[in-house]
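Comment thread on ticket #2218

A.B. wrote:
> Attaching the input chain for the structure job we discussed in standup.
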Amino acid sequence: MENIREINKEDIVSEGKKLLDAGAKFVTAVCSDLKEKLEVTYLFSANRGTELTCLRYKIGKDEEVASLSGTTLATVLIENEMKELFGLKVKDLAIDYGGHLLLAQDSPVTPLLKTHLVTSMTSKGEN
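C.D. wrote:
> Ran it. Output below, let me know if you need it in another format.
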């Protein structure tokens, strides 16, 4: 995607604030487990939805990243979701659901985090 800007994790708040101050709106964020690291992408829309800008960083699974929710409360739900589902260590969340925005007390911890290798399985008779 041509509109993805790779940034350092330390720059998510300042770079996000620049886009917001220029009139962009926060759309969503996505997290992917790359085995050794997590990849987080924040999406912003500008010019009445005709332009999309993405800020992407990679972070070690044991590292912390600052929340963008102090700049725009619109990120609070997705940052809590990434924290719960992937174990992303987000600090200074404006509202921290403590791991229970989506997950119940007895739910699996970080259910989307890769904890083991998945091998391909084929049915009988398949080559």
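A.B. wrote:
> Thanks. Noting for the ticket: The first helix runs from residue 12 to 21.
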